[in-house]
Structure formats: C-alpha cells, structure tokens
Design brief:
Length: 142
C-alpha cells in the first residue's frame, strides 16, 4: 500500500513539472529573485539555483520588447522575471522558460552543446534546458 501511494505521489510530481499553467505571464507578480529593473544582471550579485557546473539556461533578447521568463518551471507563476529589450539573463541563474504573449509569435535561435536550431514559438510558455542559450530574434503578430 505504501509503495503504491509513493508511486502515485511521484507520478503527480513528475506530471506537475511538465504541465503548462493556464494563467498568463502578465497576471503574475514579478518574483523577488529577479533583478529589479530587467537589465542584464552583471551588477546583481545574487546567484540562483538550477545551474549545472556553472552552465545555466540563458536568454538573449535581441528585440526592443520586454519578455517574461521563468526561473522555475515547476512554479512558473511565482518565478516570473521581466527581461528588457536588448538585454540578457547572464548572471541571473538558470532560466527555465520563455513566455510568448497571446496573438504573438517568437523566432528563437537555440544554441546547445549537441546542436543548434531555429524555432518559431506560438503563444504560451516554452521550456529551455539548462544547457541551452535562447536568442530571441523576433517577436511579431502572425
């Protein structure tokens, strides 16, 4: 009985870690873990968890628009940070996801140790891995 209960609990945790929240990024408050003004965080000395051997999921925003990123895929709504245009998340810690607003699309170039790729994301949250760098090239209305 205990084994079955433990297995069910583990399955729920795994399912929750991959589930996308229904609420929009704009509805949640900015996390206290974020640099206060959305800038590149070189001057902000806080180091967030989630990096592996100094490698962190990182976002480079090449657009003029502010984008929302999450520092914790398992608790997106309480870990949203704003990244200003022409800024990046270097020094913030491990970024886990990027939000594309409703009725928008985003062209992103992902660089990773085992291959690079272009993606065109529609509205919603999109996961990036700890070993990936996401270069946001364009945000547009389809």
């Amino acid at each position: 009985m205990r084994l079955r209960t433990a297995a069910a609990g583990l399955a729920a945790v795994i399912a929750a870690s991959f589930a996308l929240p229904a609420a929009s990024a704009s509805a949640a408050a900015v996390s206290d873990q974020c640099p206060r003004d959305g800038r590149s965080a070189a001057a902000d000395t806080r180091i967030l968890g989630g990096c592996v051997f100094g490698v962190c999921g990182t976002v480079y925003n090449r657009t003029s628009e502010t984008v929302s990123v999450t520092m914790n895929w398992g608790d997106i709504q309480n870990n949203i940070c704003r990244l200003n245009g022409h800024a990046n998340t270097e020094g913030w810690g491990d970024v886990d996801g990027i939000y594309v607003p409703t009725q928008r699309k985003m062209d992103v170039f992902i660089t990773a140790p085992f291959g690079n790729r272009w993606v065109a994301w529609g509205p919603g949250w999109h996961k990036i891995s700890t070993d990936e760098y996401a270069h946001i090239d364009r945000i547009y209305k389809p």
